[in-house]
């Protein structure tokens, strides 16, 4: 019993020293997603957890197949149907959003907070959200010209990121 207390005290001291030299990790995106996921009464299976981990830790646009392959390392019994079902749940919870990719397929990325627009690198899939568009005049013009009441819009630019351009400066459209 005395040995156990000594070991416990050493561990506590080590943790206190580490916390003084290293910042304590903040609430992560995955923690936030898990709270929302569980509060929505969705079952959290190992397969879904693997999909959540892949998406929450990604800063690039991922196709369902890319998500499946990456998550399968964490959950070997994962099926592609489970990936699609989990994507549907996450999209309904507004944790991810669907984006259009240059090849015509759909991809998924972490949802932005608030109304933001997107830059996507066609080579590496890097995605960057930005604010500051003013499409009010365009929306008014469309309303008057076609009689539409504009409810929402989505603005997405595709291009080649700085990193991919520096890898091949002679042809910035190639990785």
Structure keywords:
7 helices; single chain; 2 domains; Dna Ligase, domain 1; Arc Repressor Mutant, subunit A; alpha+beta; 175 residues; two-stranded antiparallel ribbon; three-stranded mixed sheet; 5 strands
Give the spatial strand order of the biggest sheet.
Answer: 4-3-5
Write down how many β-strands occur, each being a DSSP E stretch of 2 or more residues.
5
Q: So what's the overall shape?
A: globular
Enumerate the spans where pLDDT stays under 50 for 5 or more consecutive residues.
1-12, 14-26
The CATH class of the largest domain is identified as Mainly Alpha
Query: Level of helix content?
Result: 40-55%
Mean pLDDT: 79
CATH topology of the largest domain: Arc Repressor Mutant, subunit A
Helix/strand order, N-terminal first: HHHHHEEEEHEH
């Amino acid at each position: 019993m005395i040995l156990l207390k000594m070991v416990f005290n050493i561990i506590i001291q080590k943790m206190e020293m580490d916390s003084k030299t290293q910042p304590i990790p903040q609430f992560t995106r995955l923690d936030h997603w898990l709270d929302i996921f569980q509060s929505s009464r969705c079952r959290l299976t190992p397969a879904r957890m693997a999909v959540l981990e892949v998406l929450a830790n990604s800063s690039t646009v991922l196709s369902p197949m890319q998500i499946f392959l990456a998550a399968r390392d964490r959950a070997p019994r994962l099926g592609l149907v489970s990936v699609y079902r989990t994507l549907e749940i996450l999209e309904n919870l507004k944790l991810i959003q669907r984006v259009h990719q240059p090849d015509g397929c759909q991809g998924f990325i972490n949802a932005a907070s608030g109304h933001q627009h997107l830059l996507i690198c066609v080579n590496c899939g890097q995605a960057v959200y930005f604010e500051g568009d003013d499409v009010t005049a365009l929306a008014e013009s469309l309303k008057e010209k076609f009689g539409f009441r504009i409810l929402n819009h989505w603005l997405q630019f595709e291009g080649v990121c700085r990193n991919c351009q520096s890898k091949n400066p002679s042809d910035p459209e190639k990785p």
